[in-house]
Design a protein that fits this description.
The chain is α/β, with parallel strands linked by helices and about 325 residues long. The protein has eleven helices and eight strands. Strands 7-5-6-4-1-2-3-8 form an eight-stranded mixed beta sheet, sandwiched between helices.
Length: about 325
């Protein structure tokens, strides 16, 4: 009997973890009884009652498993690390707040049975803030035009990933993984399942401006050269314009020596403009340097504090012990 692993990353989701567990288990047992399953939560150092609830759930059902991170390792590292820890023949990644509908699970599995190694959910609409959805759409369109690698619009990471693909992820050894880009970059044949994103069931979203900016910059620095090329082009254009303006001022001063006072205003405006351009692109280059620095340091994706309901006292399933895990 094949096993389906369901991975649910969580952070301060005390109002949702028990409900999402019940909903996922209900769908698996009702619609997919021919499969065994495990439900794995990876908690990113929650500060509420999420962990006590998960401990109780693991005590009541051995198929519910939990990994507790030593601290918050970010919105990308923790889910990616969780994908590498499951033992099923495939893993379905979902969020804890019900914004990835559990009704997608049978659709994912059906496509997997048809031979697809990757099956992903694509938001065709959303009940979230319309302005945010529009801004996301603009971002996706921009990054698709700038990137050398295909970028998938309105893909949040939710989907089904075959064991073969998970083993490829294990060999990547990327300390700053961006799964949304990796899925498209590796070229696996995939199927896209459209869905409408519902509102968050309970609690507050953790996607503030900083987190959204972090996601955008990770995508830009990982998959585009646009920032560096733009700095070069803008610098070149600014240099040419400055030379033309300087030459024009020189000619006008020589022709109308007594009637053309150059003044300080044009020089001041030019200095402010060029200074702001330089500062902007120094920041852009800094983002690329930061990305390089994080990759060079080769720090682990996640440091674990505790595992519950895994196979042995070391917290590894037999399959992981056999294959090893270079990311720990």
């Amino acid at each position: 009997m094949k096993t389906i692993s369901v991975l649910i990353p969580c952070y301060n989701e005390e109002e949702n973890v028990e409900a999402i567990a019940g909903a996922v288990i209900g769908v698996l047992e009702k619609d997919l009884p021919q499969y065994d399953y495990e439900l794995v939560f990876i908690d990113n150092d929650s500060r509420d009652n999420t962990r006590p609830i998960l401990r109780r759930m693991c005590g009541e059902n051995p198929r519910v498993k939990a990994i507790f991170n030593a601290r918050n390792f970010g919105q990308f590292n923790s889910p990616y690390y969780g994908l590498l820890q499951v033992g099923g023949d495939c893993v379905i990644a979902m969020v804890a707040d019900f914004q990835d509908p559990v009704e997608l699970i049978p659709k994912y599995v059906k496509a997997w049975e048809e031979g697809y190694k990757i099956v992903i959910g694509i938001k065709t609409s959303s009940r979230e803030n319309p302005l945010m959805y529009w801004l996301r759409s603009c971002y996706y369109k921009m990054i698709r035009k700038l990137s050398d690698v295909e970028q998938i619009e309105h893909f949040t990471g939710s989907g089904l990933y075959d064991r073969e693909f998970i083993e490829v992820l294990r060999r990547l050894d990327d300390p700053t993984p961006f799964l949304r880009g990796i899925v498209a970059e590796l070229g696996y044949k995939r199927k896209e399942i459209p869905y409408e994103q519902p509102k968050r069931r309970a609690g507050k979203t953790h996607n503030n401006f900083y987190r959204l900016y972090d996601a955008a910059m990770l995508s830009v620095t990982s998959y585009t050269k646009a920032g560096l090329r733009l700095a070069t082009f803008v610098g070149a254009v600014s240099c040419v314009l400055s030379l033309l303006v300087a030459f024009a001022y020189l000619v006008m001063k020589l022709v109308w020596w007594d009637r053309f006072p150059a003044g300080m205003a044009p020089m001041l405006l030019g200095m402010l403009f060029l200074g702001s351009v330089q500062i902007f692109f120094i920041g852009m280059i800094g983002e690329y340097v930061l990305s390089i620095n994080q990759r060079v340091m080769k720090r682990p994706l996640v440091i674990e504090e505790e595992r519950i309901n895994f196979a042995d006292r070391n917290g590894q399933t037999p399959e992981l012990r056999k294959k090893g895990n270079d990311n720990q």
